[in-house]
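INTERNAL TRANSFER SHEET
From: sequence group
To: structure group
Subject: V-type ATP synthase beta chain

Please process the attached sequence and return the structure record in the designated field. Keep the field labels unchanged so the import script can parse them.
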Amino acid sequence: MPKEYRTIQEVAGPLMFVKDVEDVAYDELGEIELANGDKKRCKVLEINGTNAVVQLFESSTGINLAESKVRFLGRSMELGVSKDMLGRVFDGLGRPKDGGPEILPEKRLDINGVPMNPAARDYPQEFIQTGVSAIDGLNTLVRGQKLPIFSASGLPHANLAAQIARQAQVRGTNEQFAVVFAAMGITFEEAHFFTESFTQTGAIDRTVMFVNLANDPAVERISTPRMALTAAEYLAFDLNMHVLVILTDITNYADSLREISAARKEVPGRRGYPGYMYTDLATMYERAGRKKGHTGSITMIPILTMPENDKTHPIPDLTGYITEGQIILSNDLYRQGITPPVDVLPSLSRLKDKGIGKGKTRKDHADTMNQLFAAYARGKEAKELMVVLGEAALTEIDLLYAKFSDEFEQRYVSQGYETNRTIEETLDLGWDLLGILPKSELKRIKDEYIEEFYKPRQN
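Return from structure group:
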């Protein structure tokens, strides 16, 4: 029977101070019983001798210092997991919020997970088809990878996230594929958009959703991605499913981390964020991957909005250190009506070479990708020269590259949020665009591929 304490000393915002506690551990769950019998949940943030600082999961309204009592439950936060989670929507603490029944768990797992032994990791090398050409063709996502999307305020990252969640699949296998979607600090309107999008397309049947709204407590936001990753680990390593985890928005998560750190009066680091934010983000991101001896895997796409569109801000900066590349969305492309507005030149997938080629996508993929990058970069330079010097100053070949750049953005990058392209369609479209250029310009493609796939445009 847990001990009950009537030694609450102070309540300060989301924090509560309890003295004279025994055998209480960091991160342990607690329960506060009010004078009227209502109960509130909390967890231990700090232990100093016999004094404990606890973080409330709900409002502190109604807590009477003299009459309220606290009991500690002897365990950290857990999530009850079962295959029945697929197709369900939960709040940030794992409670059903879709009107359905409680899950009957097959087991209960600590939401902090168990660190994956580096020696037990398997190398990511299987292609995941998202149906988005700018990702599949140029910044390929590989099973077990962590590939974040760097966005900015006002850009349609929610539409892109929903599109990837609906369309993603592992090709050439009969293995089950699931999506775990965690939304942190989003508005009710965004939550409704995601739920409706998945429900209308039937993608909800293979999706587990965790939704934390903007008006929910900050401490719940800290738990939401860990709830999602715990569900993903169960599906991947217990049920041997391929799991794609989408976390949006990491910026809201980091702001909650800063809020709680400030409430604890910790010494702030860069821009007021706690000095341990790198470690905290790594404990989430590094839960993705593949394990030797398991057919299941966890692939992760964290989405974050860069404050002031600044890549050097601590959140994108630290995320970039931990993950394997980034997909960057562009304000300029969005203003031109390009959807999704993926800026392919600064975007990068560090593992793309491992997931493409013969037997994975197609033999010409690597060469085509390199040639498209080179041609688009030169086309952008030609357009910049055209602005400064005028069209008459450009050579005939520069004009062809400028034309290529425009068509590349309008046809290859801009495909809308409903088009689901196979990798073959993406590669064929790339060859069609390269037909704008003369054969002599295709210096990054093997002659045998040029003979097989190249068809020059009739100008």
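Handover comment: The CA atoms of residues 362 and 382 lie 31 Å apart. The chain has three domains: 4-72, 78-355, 364-453.
Transfer complete.
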